[in-house]
Each structure stands twice: as structure tokens, then as C-alpha cells.
Amino acid sequence: MSYLIGVDIGTSGTKTVLFDDRGGVVASHTVEYEMYQPKNGWAEQNPEDWWNATLDTLRAVISKSGVSAGDIKGIGLSGQMHGLVLLDKEGNVLRPSIIWCDGRTVAECDEITSTIGKDRLIEISANPALPGFTAGKILWVRKNEPQIWEKAAHILLPKDYIRYKLTGEFATEVSDASGMNLLDVPKRQWSEEILQKLQIDKAMLPKMYESCEVTGNVSGAVADKTGLTAGTPVVGGAGDNAAAAVGTGVVKTGKAFTTIGTSGVIFAHADEVSIDPGGRVHTFCHAVPGKWTVMSCTLAAGLSLKWFRDQFCTAEMETAKGMGKDPYELMNEQIDRLPIGANKLIYLPYLMGERSPLLDADARGVFFGLSAIHTKYDMMRAVMEGVTYSQRNCLDVFREMGVSFSEMMATGGGGRSAVWRQMLADVYDCDVSTLQSKEGPALGVAILAGVGAGVYGSVPEGCDAVVKKDSVQKPINGNLAEYEKYYKLYLKLYQDLKADFKTLAQI
């Protein structure tokens, strides 16, 4: 039997999983690390923490599994997107990585927009200049840390730094590079126009690959430290959401997934490039060669329910602990007893401002319609429904762009809730499925590694061999019409409050 490794370099930790070629988990290990916030709104991590975690997790899965290293046919890398790693000409890290959730680059994003032109930037990079993206971080370092920039020779993304440490190669791939504001997304190559106008030397950027192409091989030094075989192929891999798409089988027309984690994401496959001129959702290159994706990101999806739980559900948390249950199970039981519309209560889930599709940092959370009749369980259901409406709002943009689907997967913590999945099925008006494997990004890049190593003939073929459905929830007849009444009011409330949010921000 052949084996494949997926390494997922996340924000909270690195998870490495060893799979067999049918997608079965043979061994898994995770090592966590810190995120640092030197100032309010900043977010950084130490790339050496990622590397040490990668070494530790590779050693662990190989020793736990008892699998011969020679039977491991390839390695795929998934990673948090948008982070900036700067190296000098000797390959040394020059400063901590500025990661995806750092918000310091608003002025630099304005500079990028004015330099390239708002419409032209979206036309080329398929996205507006956003503080989370990499280009603004490059300009920030150049402006604010000239002594660091002077020494910089290489610009890498987080997972691509791990690739360099594994193989000695400076390389990236199209899905992760799509989130830098530097890629010509329709052409799947670095944009000469953007680089020239922003005065970024193309020689600093890594070589570009498709996600399933072999980008290098494990070095002898790394083999000695991990137990891997020197020469084991390392493929391009993918940014975390593209990796999750492969891991959930979203690699063909008509397929999409919704993730309700801290943030909320809808991710749909597209055979042709489709760009929203308003930049309300993101278009990226897919990990499937020659294909694209459309993706939304709302900022407080599962975070909204966790916030409510932590603030108002102490009794449920204590009861659940005594019963050996997840408190969300008890919360779901209460929510399921309540009617659609939470007894005429609507929640706007803008606790952290909003990204997709509003692009409004000043938006804030709202309970609308609150009266003496309402209990905390009404509020809890309103939170779930409000998050579901925020995902539907993004989905309406997808449909407007001509990106359609007939099959939706549900992942993330919210995806484990049958109540929430039923809301999604009813409000989306389509079947919502779960999968047998919960590994997501790590499985996705292991499949990509299998394609690069010749275990599978193509990405769709690898997914067909590995990705299996678990459960399917269908829309309940009549529920969509009832939800639609509240959804229309939900959309109107933001428009009515938009100016008030800005006034509040300025007080």
C-alpha cells in the first residue's frame, strides 16, 4: 500500500496526518504555538515555531505508524494564507511573520488601490486590496522597517517557508499566491503590471507551480531529523481553504462547501474565472489545474455563537460538563424547539465588522425586535439564523456571478450541528451533506501529493477514491418561504443602519 502525508500549517498549530491511499488516517499529530500581538490590531508568528512543529509532527506520525518511510510516496503542504515571511539572501528569517489577521496595513491598501486603480486591481488580482492580504504587508515593511527591507531577498508565504526548509526550494503554487494581491489570477502567473507599479522585484518572489506539481524533494538533512526518506516528493499543496475544498471533494462543477468555524466561508468550484467587480467575494485559482474558485469570508460566524455561549450560557456549560457532553448539544436541543424566526427576533452577526459581502469594518452586532417575550434561547436561535443569513447573502452574490452549485458540504464546528445544517439546507434550498473524513485541509493536500507522485491520475480521480459522504440533510418543504420573510428584513436592516454604524465608530 502507498502512503501520503498532509501537513497543515495553521494559526493555532501545525497538524500532520499520515494517510493510506484510500484516505484512511494511519497516524496524526498536532503541535500548537503562540500568536503574538505587539500592538492592538497586529498579529505575528515566529516561522521557526512552524518549522519546529513540522519536524515534531513528522517524527511523531512516522514513529506512531510503523509505516516504512519508503512507502510514503509524497508530501503536501496546506497553510494559513496571506502571511508575509521575509528571508535574507542566506535564507535566514528577518522578522516575525505578519499573518492573515493582522490589520495594520489600511494605509498601504489605500496606496495600492490608488497606484493600480481599484477596478484594474480587481481585474488583474480578482480582489480588492485588503489589510489581510500580503501586498500591503510588503509595503508596510518597506516603509516602516527600511533596515529589514534592505536585507530582504525572498518573499514567501507561511507554508512555502516550510517547503523551503524541507527541500531548499523557493516555490509557491497558484491557490495560495492568489491571496497576495500580486497574482494575475485569470492568467495564473505573477502580474508584471502590479509588481512594476508597486516597485516589487519579481526576483524576490518564488517560482510558481500548479498545486499538484512536484516542487522539490525532501533533503538528506531533513530526512535524518524526521525519519523520512531523502528524495520524497513535496508538491505545491494549497492555501487552507483550497486544500479543504480538495479534502471535501469540491473539485467539479456544481460542488461547494460551507465552513462555520470562527469565521464563515462558502467556497465554490468554477470551471471558468468569474470575478465580482465590486470585490464583495474573492476569486482565487483552485488547486485543480486550470480551474478557479469563488470564496466568501464572514468574520463572526461560529464566533457569534461562542460569544453568546460564553456570556449567557454558564448554566448549560456547567450542566454539560457534569454530563460529559458538549454544551452546544444542550444548546441545540433548546434551539430546535423554537419556531423559525426566533419569535420575531433577528440578529446581525457583525461583532468584528464584516468582510463578505459588505466590506464594512464599522458594522457591529445587533439584536432587532427584542421584547419581554424573548428568552435567551430565542436569542440563541436568532444568532444561528443571523449567521445563516450572512452566508446566504454571500451565496446570492455567487449566483449573481453565475457560479451555481447543486451539492453543498458542511464543515467546521457549526457543520457538526444537525440543527444548523438544517437551517443551511432550508435557507440555501439545497441538500447539505457531511463527510466521513473530518481531516479537511490535511487530506486535501495529501490527495494533491498523491497526484504529484502518480498514485492518482488527477485531482478529481483522487477525490473520487478518497472522499466519502456521511449524512445528507434535505430542505424541509415550506421552510424556505418562512425564512425568506426574515431574510429580506435582515438585508434591509444593514442598509438602514449603515450610516449609524459609521457615526458610532466616530464617537
Strand order of the largest sheet: 18-19-17-16-22-23-24
Report the mean per-residue pLDDT as an integer: 95
- The total of beta strands comes to 24
Approximate strand percentage? 15-25%
Q: SS-based structural class? A: alpha+beta
What does this 3D model show about the protein?
The protein has 507 residues and is an alpha+beta fold. 41% of the residues lie in helices and 21% in strands. The protein has a 7-stranded mixed sheet, with helices on both faces. The protein has a 5-stranded mixed sheet with strand order 3-2-1-5-15, sandwiched between helices. A hairpin with a 4-residue loop joins strand 10 and strand 11. Helix 1 packs across helix 6, helix 10 crosses helix 17 and helix 14 crosses helix 16.
Helices and strands, with pairings:
Layout lengths: L2 E7 L3 E8 L4 E8 L11 E2 L1 H19 L6 E8 L5 E3 L9 E2 L7 H11 L1 H8 L8 H11 L1 H4 L4 E3 L1 H10 L3 E3 H4 L5 E2 L4 E2 L1 H7 L8 E3 L4 E4 L2 H7 L6 E3 L2 E2 H8 L6 E7 L3 E7 L11 E4 L6 E7 L3 H11 L1 H10 L3 H10 L9 E3 L17 E3 L7 H25 L4 E7 H4 L2 H11 L3 E4 L5 H12 L6 H8 L2 E5 L5 H28 L1
Helix pairs in contact: 1-6, 2-3, 2-4, 10-17, 11-12, 11-14, 12-13, 13-14, 14-16, 17-18
